[in-house]
């Protein structure tokens, strides 16, 4: 039988979510909202708020960009496509 997550504070209450900060399972009575996220305690809420205030999110930074090799490859594909279109327009294909 699959384990049902129970609230860490209430053994008899089923957990509905996990704390965004520490990952503890908590019931709806224990939820503390912080910066749009749900946390298990004021302590976690405070931590999460600090984290959010620093501009941090749970989404990893994807702005690092594409690998240079992939960029070169994309450039080649664009060039090949352009050449194809030009040849096509000139009636060579
Ligand atoms: Zn927590
Ligand atoms: Zn609870």
Provide a short characterization of the protein structure:
The protein has 93 residues and is α+β, with helices and mostly antiparallel strands. It has helices at 42-53, 68-90; strands at residues 17-18, 25-26, 32-34, 37-39. A hairpin with a 6-residue loop joins strand 1 and strand 2 (25-26).
Note down, in words, how this protein is organized:
The chain has helices at about 40-55, 70-90; strands at about 15-20, 25, 30-35, 35-40. The protein is an alpha+beta fold and about 90 residues long. It has 2 domains: about 1-55, no CATH class; about 65-93. The strands form 2 sheets. It has a two-stranded antiparallel sheet. Strands 3-4 form a two-stranded antiparallel sheet. The longest helix is centred in the last third of the chain and has 23 residues, at about 70-90. Bound molecules: zinc ion (2 copies). The site of one zinc ion has 8 residues, from loops. One zinc ion binds near residues 9, 26, 27 and 30.
């Amino acid at each position: 039988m699959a384990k049902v997550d129970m609230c860490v504070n209430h053994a008899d209450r089923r957990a509905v979510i996990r704390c965004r900060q520490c990952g503890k399972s908590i019931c709806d009575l224990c939820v503390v909202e912080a910066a749009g996220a749900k946390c298990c305690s004021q302590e976690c809420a405070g931590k999460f708020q600090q984290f959010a205030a620093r501009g941090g999110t749970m989404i990893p930074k994807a702005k690092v960009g594409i690998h240079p090799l992939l960029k070169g490859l994309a450039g080649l594909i664009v060039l090949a496509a352009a050449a194809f279109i030009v040849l096509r327009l000139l009636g060579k294909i």
